[in-house]
Design goal:
The complex is a heterodimer. By secondary structure, chain A is mostly helical. Helix content of chain A is about 70%, strand content about 0%. Chain A is globular. Chain B has helices at about 40-50, 70-75, 95-100, 105-120, 120-125, 135-150, 165-180, 195-200, 220-225, 225-230, and strands at about 1-10, 15-25, 30-35, 55-60, 65, 80, 155-160, 185-190, 205-210, 210-215. The radius of gyration of chain B is 17 Å and the shape is globular. Chain B contains ten helices and ten strands.
Amino acid sequence: MGLYQVTVAITTGIYIILTMGLNTITGYTGQVSLGHAAFFGVGAYASAILSVRYGFPFWVALPLAIISTALVGAVLGAVSTRLREDSLAITTIGINFVMVSVFKYSSFFGGALGIGGIRYPSLFGHTLTKPEYLLVVAACVALGVWLDRRLVRSWLGLALRAVGQDEAAAESLGVDSPRFKIVAFMIGTAYAGAAGSLYAHFMTFISPQDFGFPMSISIISMAVFGGLGTLRGAILGSCVLGLAPEVFRPLVEYRNLMYGALLLLMMRFQPQGLIGDGSVVWERIRSLFASGRVPGRAERGGV
Amino acid sequence: MLTVESLAVRYGDMEVIHGASFEVEEGDSVAIIGANGAGKTTLLRTLMGLHRNFDGRIAFLGKDIGHMSPWERAKLGMVMVPEGRRVFPDLSVEQNLLIGAYSQQDRSAVRASMEEVYGLFPILRERRHQVGKTLSGGEQQMLAIGRALMARPRLLLVDEVSTGLMPIFVDKAFQVLRGLIERGVSVLLVEQNARKALATMARGYVLETGRIVLSGTADELAANADVRKAYLGA
């Protein structure tokens, strides 16, 4: 694997972590967030400042960045419990712009120039090489996947999905939905915080526009393209949309146009996403692997 | 058990329920019958705490619950079977039931409740790994009722048990309600199908454009000339 491929793989890994987080908030819990990049930024800036200004090593800055981002996420979660779906979407866009302005106009965050000189992580005095850093990112992705599977199988995950699918019904069965929305935002933004920290120490230089609204659109496009509400969809969506501009270089210029167009097409023709539950492709795959007796469709319907 | 006094419910500035008073005693079964648009669903949503724009007093088990959230009411034992069989579409039958047991701490009690629900609706056991939206209308209604039973309700609020169901399932649904009442669960049913509702419940109220215009035992109402004319097609 050449250095270019390693770079692309690291970036894709960071996208996967971001999308998994958004999938928890928007996919499982049904809280539309169009400002996920803001939390990516909080994680990146927290990690950068801890490392550059206070000399914390990456291994300490990473967990601290995760915690700080989750705390900021909790605040947004608390706000979200007072908002309806459409106004939440708009509020999260607003938060994205506010965060970018804060990064841009506050000297604490380095202003428009951003923060440079962020060190690559080192281990026992040895500064990690890019391929070694890829292993760190891969380990974080694996941990993220494992935590996501645990979440989905837990009581907590069940409650999050119930709130996402029918909030009123969940509440009238005793589910305290505001609490679960806050938890969903904390989990999802914690993922974004991890992604931000990994990004900052990989780029070694960050600036406000890395975390703007277009980035949020990229992340939600990935989640929707793959299939909102499923882990496999989040992973596939980040890989396909993350790699597309690399494979088709001319696309780089039109990246946002492409994402926007894809988002519209998916919403119109395949809202379940490419491999979400009930999508054409996923049903095909299921019936291919279903052992003769219970093919996907025959099982349905019933009486 | 449930006492409602001069309840007025609004959407924005428009009042849709005008000073309704009624009660459900412990072990009682009460039907509120009325045509489409009489305010039945709004009434139940207000009782459950899903609609907050109201005046008047709602007391449950002697406590004023008007300021409480739906989940606090559910924890007190008031549980609703929502209109239109709103099961969680992408959760399996078993997961739907587990959400019903959300407030129950004791795992073995949850398993016992689940066995009970499966005993009541054997088809749900067969379909326990299927997701909610793949069930038929009748099965979804059974799941919605089963899910509410998992919460071990003291008072079950039921919104339209019969709408959109084939006649055979309507009978089954009312049969299930009768079984619950016999086991001592208090039931408040709002229902368009007045004939079935009055045949199943002990007492009834008639709701007409946001006002309770009649009340009595189910037999009295079923014999009332106005009720017969307006709701029983006789």
